Structure formats: structure tokens, C-alpha cells
């Protein structure tokens, strides 16, 4: 079975879409459309000589409308200098394979970020242009953004729990001291009755605060778990909803 690029090398310099589609295996065509991918070749002037795949979905153009036109017609103007430099390198026989995100230009005029993997288009022993695949990587970018947001949320949660633990530790000692002093003063026979009532109220409030700190301390008692990215907070175990208390 011919590969996609072998099919390209067997075609004329500029092949009509019907010839391209007829030469490519059905499985390849289905794979290109399923993965939102366009396969292209272009000559050393930047003219597209072969286009196959999901160009209508990604850029709003049919394959046959793109063949014979300049590759730059479908790139955002900010990408043109990069294309000219790459064409000049290919003309010198450069065979490097590159992968990066480029801004393409949709038929409706808006920019479309797409991932392109491109290398030399070789016929015989000569570099006659470039050949590559253009793919919609928006799903990958969306998953990366969701991953980064989740990591940021986890980091904020870890910071909050660690701060809470520090607050509990810092407040426990002075509250204990206040409670001890209040108990000593309340037990002193020389303490006036009205002050004794205030001390009793203070003891009750300090005890209540102590209970709240104890409850918060159980939440703030964090435990870490090993991950490929380093130790991370185990929120389930830390909150007591899973694992050991």
C-alpha cells in the first residue's frame, strides 16, 4: 500500500483533487478527515502542488481550490516572513523536519491556530519543496488549559490548607495562655464578683474558640502523596473523607 507521501511523489507537479483522492487509500482519506488533518506539498516558490484532507473543515476551502495557489494565501500575514525563510532554506537543500503552531487564515478572514509538521519534499535525490501535515490541535490545547487550571486550583487549595495549619498553630498557644490566666484570676478570692463574671464569660468564649480551632485543625492537617510532578496535597485524606484520619 502506498503511503500518503509516496502518493504525492507519484503525482504530476500540480495534481487535480480528483487524481489525488483517487491515488490515496480510502483508509488514509478517512483518517485525515477524522483527525481534522490536511496533507500538503508545495514547491520552492511556495505554490501548493498537492492538498488532501479536511481543508474545508479547517480553513473553509476545498482541496482543489487550494492547489496551484501560494501557500502564503492561507497563512496569516504575520507568518509570511517565516515561510519565505523556510523556502530559501529548502532551496539550499535543507532537509530539517519542523513542528510548530502557525496562524492560518480562514476563508472568512479570521486567524486559525493549527499545528504543522513539515519537512522536505524530495523527488529523486533533490529537495523540490516542502511536504507536511496540518492538524487541528485545539482539543490538545483545551486539555492542557484544563490541566493547568486544575493544577492551579490544587495549588491554591494546598496554600490555603497550609496557611490554616499555621494559623491554628500560632493561635493555640496564646489562647491557652489566656485561658490559664483567666482560670487563675477566677480562683483568686480577691477577684471582685463582677470581674469574676467577666472571667467566666471569657473562659467560655476561649473554650469555644479553642473548639473551633480544633475542628479547623483537623481540616488543616494535610497529608501529601507522591506524584510524577512531585509531592502534592491529598485533599481527600487531609479532610478526613478518605483514608486514615
Folded structure, characterized:
- This protein has two domains: 4-137, 2-Layer Sandwich (Beta-Lactamase), CATH 3.30.450; 145-239, Helix Hairpins, CATH 1.10.287.
- The strands form two sheets. The protein has a five-stranded antiparallel sheet with strand order 2-1-5-4-3. Strands 6-7 form a two-stranded antiparallel ribbon.
- Mean pLDDT is 77; it is low at 1-15 and 238-245.
- It has helices spanning 4-10, 17-23, 26-34, 55-59, 63-66, 80-91, 138-187, 193-220, 235-239, and strands at residues 37-43, 48-53, 98-105, 111-123, 126-135, 224-225, 232-233.
- The chain starts with a helix and ends in a 6-residue tail after the last helix.
- A hairpin with a 4-residue loop joins strand 1 (37-43) and strand 2.
- It is rod-shaped, with a radius of gyration of 34 Å.
- With 245 residues, the chain is an alpha+beta fold.
* Computed structural class: alpha+beta
Alpha carbon gyration radius: 34 Å
Determine the number of helices (DSSP H or I, runs of at least 4 residues). 9
The pLDDT mean sits at: 77
**Largest sheet: number of strands, sense, barrel closure:** 5 strands, antiparallel
Which strand order do you get reading across the main beta sheet?
A: 2-1-5-4-3
CATH topology of the largest domain: Beta-Lactamase
CATH-level-2 architecture of the largest domain: 2-Layer Sandwich
Query: What is the assigned CATH homologous superfamily of the largest domain?
Result: PAS domain
Q: Please report which band the strand proportion falls in: under 5%, 5-15%, 15-25%, 25-35%, 35-45% or over 45%.
A: 15-25%
What is the end-to-end distance?
61 Å
Assign a percent range to the helix content.
40-55%
CATH top level label of the largest domain: Alpha Beta
Shape: rod-shaped
How many domains?
A: 2
The tally of strands reads 7
Order of helices and strands: HHHEEHHHEEEHHEEH
Amino acid at each position: 500500500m502506498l503511503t500518503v507521501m509516496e502518493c504525492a511523489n507519484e503525482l504530476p507537479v500540480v495534481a487535480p483533487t480528483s487524481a489525488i483522492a483517487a491515488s490515496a487509500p480510502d483508509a488514509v482519506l478517512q483518517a485525515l478527515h477524522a483527525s481534522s488533518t490536511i496533507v500538503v506539498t508545495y514547491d520552492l516558490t511556495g505554490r501548493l502542488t498537492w492538498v488532501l484532507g479536511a481543508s474545508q473543515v479547517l480553513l473553509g476551502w476545498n482541496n482543489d481550490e487550494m492547489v496551484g495557489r501560494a501557500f502564503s494565501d492561507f497563512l496569516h500575514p504575520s507568518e509570511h516572513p517565516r515561510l519565505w525563510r523556510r523556502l530559501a532554506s529548502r532551496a539550499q537543500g535543507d532537509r530539517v523536519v519542523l513542528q510548530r503552531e502557525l496562524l492560518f487564515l480562514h476563508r472568512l478572514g479570521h486567524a486559525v491556530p493549527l499545528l504543522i509538521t513539515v519537512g522536505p519534499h524530495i523527488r529523486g535525490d533533490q529537495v523540490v519543496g516542502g511536504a507536511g501535515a496540518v492538524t487541528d490541535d485545539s482539543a490538545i490545547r483545551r486539555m492542557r488549559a484544563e490541566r493547568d487550571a486544575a493544577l492551579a486550583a490544587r495549588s491554591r487549595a494546598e496554600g490555603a490548607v497550609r496557611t490554616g495549619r499555621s494559623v491554628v498553630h500560632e493561635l493555640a498557644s496564646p489562647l491557652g495562655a489566656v485561658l490559664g490566666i483567666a482560670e487563675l484570676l477566677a480562683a483568686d478570692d480577691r477577684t471582685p464578683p463582677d470581674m469574676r463574671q467577666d472571667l467566666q464569660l471569657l473562659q467560655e468564649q476561649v473554650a469555644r474558640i479553642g473548639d473551633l480551632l480544633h475542628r479547623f485543625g483537623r481540616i488543616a492537617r494535610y497529608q501529601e502523596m507522591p506524584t510524577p510532578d512531585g509531592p502534592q496535597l491529598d485533599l481527600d485524606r487531609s479532610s478526613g473523607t478518605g483514608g486514615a484520619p
